[in-house]
Amino acid sequence: MIIMQVEDFQVAESMILKADEMQISPTANAILDLIVDEPSKIDGLAIGTALGMTYIGKFDSE
What we know:
With 62 residues, the chain is mainly alpha-helical. The chain has one domain (3-50). The protein is built from two helices and two strands, in the order βαβα. The protein has helices spanning 9-21, 44-50, and strands at residues 3-4, 33-34. A two-stranded parallel ribbon has the order 1-2. The two termini are 23 Å apart.
């Protein structure tokens, strides 16, 4: 599991707790939490593919 570009601690915590509820095996669970400036763009699909993971999507804020 990859969690990216989360600047709000409470949102990040909620996402991590939700991932924990999914009961993913600890040996198969990796969380990458990146905080970046808005102009920076990260290609989640490319990162997931490179790591052999499935990219599901992203959370956006307004």
